[in-house]
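Q: For a teaching handout, I want to show students what a protein-ligand complex looks like in token form. Below are the inputs, and the small molecule is pyridoxal-5'-phosphate. Please produce the holo structure.
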Amino acid sequence: MDKELFKEYGYKFVDWVADYMAELEKFPVLSQVNPGEIRNKLPLEPPGQGEPMERVFHDFKKIILPGISHWQHPSWYAYFPATNSPPSILAELLTAALGAQCMIWQTSPAAAELEEVVMEWLRQMLGLPEGMTGVIQDTASTATLVALLTAREKATDFKANQEGLKKALVIYASEETHSSIEKGAKIAGYGRENLRYIPTDESFAMIPSELEEAVERDKKDGLQPACVVATLGTTSSTAIDPLAAIGKICRRHSLWLHVDAAFAGTAAILPEKKSMLEGAEDVDSFVFNPHKWMLTNFDCSAYFVKDPDVLIRTFEIHPEYLKTGLDAQVKNFRDWGIQLGRRFRALKLWFVIRSYGVEGLQKIVREHIRLAQKFKEWVEEHGDFELMAPVSLSLVCFRLNDGRDEEALNDLNGRLLNSLNQTGKIFLTHTSLRGKYVLRLSIGSRTTEEHHVKEAWELIKTKAAEVLK
Ligand code: PLP
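A: Here is the structure, written as tokens, with pyridoxal-5'-phosphate included.
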């Protein structure tokens, strides 16, 4: 049965995938279904008997597909991208077929060793300091939690693991930091009250002198500063925190420095964007997501540490049933994070890097940055719109502004966003910058070309004229 099923449906599905990718633009980029609409079409109870694949596939197309928002659509400008690519999809198919669970070296030596190799390739591609060692995590949120836990252990001389926290530890991040830092502070024992949000400058980047003052204030109050999270590419506006100045403060006060470059890290493969990593020699841990802008399908988050021993000491466990005679000679990635069981994620990254080469990836990222600059110029030239943040990479923050008061402007831009997304032609999301409602146009889809961005701009102008009426 297995062989026949693969013969008939394997080819059919791969054909369907190829057609889907070629015809993606025919779908509404944002799913237009209402809450409950998909669930109501599905039986409440599982089938007692196996069903023919033809029926399952039919329902996939008829029921599931209309409820999908098409992240790979060239007119996807929402959030940050979550890109895939043909090499990555093909590798994922092989990964599923192998079905390897890669918790320790012995459970698939190739998975462990390939992970070491591709992470070293990534380190070189970004230009992170030599000696930083990488491990693949599922998401940046997990990697940041791992960093906060490791920082906690370092700050307490590995006592918190053993005895629990005796004294409050403090984390510092900019007021523009991602919500995963707050989640990490909540669950890693620091407590939300011990997360300090440091003010930002006019480009929404952390102000180092404010950081140092906050650290000194906490020390005076008898608290223990433990960790700073710097962001390269904030979620709202891709602001770049000044790493070199922050790193010096961390060294002066013996603080763990974690860098969240979830989206923007990929841009460091470009020589012209490497300056954001100035000061990286002072970084203790660094995360970025190849699943965002490096064509490697979700999930794949690259986490680098300066000192793997501290990481391993935080997470290692040695139950009898996981011991092998080779543990002293190999890397067992189960000790490099929270989960025991691990997916074989290195394969898709290897396929992507080999298929595109560093230059191929650079070309795509550079083009997205160029397109964002174009869009920025159109916004600046148009009297009814204004730019709301510097465009450091491929995200443009803007709003419609006809001079009405701030509250009314927030409402106006909310209505503009809704009317744009209801068309199904493009999908944008919003944020708030200093209390102002801001539209975000985030470019990162592998297939986005200049004419798509131009069409988006024309649609934005048309809908703006309608909401202004
Ligand atoms: N950090 C930043 C700056 C982000 O923009 C995001 C998501 O967009 C995250 C962290 C969380 O990423 P993940 O979904 O991989 O946890």
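A: Two things your students might notice: The chain is about 45% helix and 10% strand. Residues 80, 139-141, 178, 180, 231, 233-235, 260, 262-263, 289, 301 surround pyridoxal-5'-phosphate (CB under 6 Å).
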